[in-house]
């Protein structure tokens, strides 16, 4: 044998070998793509199943809570449980509406000349309006979340009386009118 045919045979074998390598590499790439697609599909399916189960659980839980809340509200007596009814209505059924109506009532107190003179003279709305709003909100929450006869409620009444006692020109009628607005306006808005 001559050397030339051996070189050609070796070159031919290396050419075929590299062609097989290319085919194998292409097949590996295809398998990698298929495996990646299968893995992505599997993960996506698992996430969708988890989200679906969570949503079904949450929906069932909300339905149960609504039924329990409905039974609880039906069991309340209008006269005996009026505080619980008001609290439930304001903070469970209509929380945003009650907050917006309280904001509105806070500024409605400017509508009466006697109250607007006092508010203007005290300058609380010009200097620290946010503090006055927060104080009013906290006092109202104490009235509504805790009964007036409870320690929290009576402390809120004492604090409110102290703060308003600093302004002797506030008449009792104005005081009661504004207090009634804060209590009744959220209910009026909820009834709409």
Q: Would you mind describing this structure in some detail?
A:
This protein is mainly α and 192 residues long. It has 2 domains: 1-75; 82-191, no CATH class. Helix content is 86%, strand content 0%. The protein contains 8 helices and no strands. It has helices at 3-75, 82-93, 95-108, 113-122, 124-127, 129-145, 151-165, 172-191. The radius of gyration is 37 Å and the shape is elongated.
Low-confidence segments: none
Radius of gyration (CA) equals 37 Å
| Count of beta strands | 0
Shape: elongated
Summed over residues and divided by their number, the pLDDT gives a mean of 79
Helical proportion?
over 70%
C-alpha end-to-end distance: 107 Å
* SSE class: mainly alpha
Major beta sheet summary: none
Q: Classify the beta-strand content into a percent band.
A: under 5%
- Counted up, domains total 2
If helices are DSSP runs of H or I spanning 4 or more residues, what is the number of helices?
8
Encode the helix/strand succession as letters. HHHHHHHH
Quick take:
With 192 residues, the chain is mostly helical. 86% of the residues lie in helices and 0% in strands.
Write the topology of this structure.
Layout lengths: L2 H73 L6 H12 L1 H14 L4 H10 L1 H4 L1 H17 L5 H15 L6 H20 L1
Helix pairs in contact: 2-3, 3-8, 6-7
């Amino acid at each position: 044998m001559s050397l030339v045919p051996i070189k050609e045979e070796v070159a031919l074998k290396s050419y075929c070998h590299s062609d097989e390598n290319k085919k194998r590499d292409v097949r590996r790439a295809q398998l990698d793509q298929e495996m990646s697609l299968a893995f992505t599909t599997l993960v996506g399916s698992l996430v969708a199943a988890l989200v679906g189960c969570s949503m079904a659980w949450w929906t069932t839980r909300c339905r149960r809570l609504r039924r329990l809340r409905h039974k609880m509200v039906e069991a309340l007596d209008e006269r005996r449980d009026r505080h619980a009814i008001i609290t439930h209505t304001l903070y469970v059924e209509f929380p945003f509406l009650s907050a917006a109506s309280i904001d509105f009532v806070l500024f409605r107190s400017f509508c009466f000349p006697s109250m607007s003179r006092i508010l203007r003279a005290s300058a609380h709305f010009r200097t620290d309006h946010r503090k006055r709003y927060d104080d009013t909100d906290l006092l109202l929450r104490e009235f509504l979340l805790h009964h007036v006869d409870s320690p929290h409620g009576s402390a809120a009444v004492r604090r409110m009386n102290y703060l308003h006692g600093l302004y002797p020109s506030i008449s009792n009628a104005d005081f009661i009118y504004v207090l009634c607005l804060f209590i009744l306006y959220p209910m009026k808005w909820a009834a709409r």
